[in-house]
Write a structure and sequence with these properties.
Monothiol glutaredoxin involved in the biogenesis of iron-sulfur clusters. InterPro entries: Glutaredoxin, GRX_PICOT-like, Monothiol_GRX, Monothiol_GRX-rel, Thioredoxin-like_sf. It comes from Candidatus Blochmannia vicinus (nom. nud.). One of its GO terms (molecular function) is 2 iron, 2 sulfur cluster binding. By secondary structure, the chain is of the alpha+beta class. The protein has 5 helices and 6 strands, in the order αβββαβαββαα. The strands form 2 sheets. A 4-stranded mixed beta sheet has the order 4-1-5-6. Strands 2-3 form a two-stranded antiparallel sheet. Helix 1 crosses helix 3.
Length: 109
């Protein structure tokens, strides 16, 4: 578990946007992951993702690390944003666009 936590910390530290999901953005394996990836793709062309169905060590460790029990999980600049419902709500209110526009400027994405 400690090794998985270290992997998670490094992924979050080394990638501005991280989506932990079931499947891949172009081949999601659940509806929530699909919606999260679709919404995120509106604002950012490419982002780092981890398929938790393949990386079972991360699937087991991430809920404890993040204190968030479900997938997908969106992390931006080292901070947990939330799951599919939060991502969709932030999209509807415009908050997600504002957040991603700011990080795009800061990180030249």
């Amino acid at each position: 578990m400690n090794n998985a936590i270290e992997k998670i910390k490094n992924q979050i530290k080394n990638n501005t946007v991280v989506l932990y999901m079931k499947g891949a953005p172009d081949d999601p394996k659940c509806g929530f992951s699909s919606k999260a990836a679709q919404v995120l793709s509106i604002y950012i062309r490419s982002f780092f993702y981890v398929d938790v169905l393949i990386h079972t060590d991360i699937r087991c460790a991430l809920p404890t690390f993040s204190n968030w029990p479900t997938f997908p999980q969106l992390w931006i600049e080292g901070k947990l944003i939330g799951g599919a419902d939060i991502i969709i709500n932030m999209h509807r209110t415009g908050e997600l666009k504002v957040l991603i526009d700011k990080i795009k400027l800061r990180n030249n994405l």
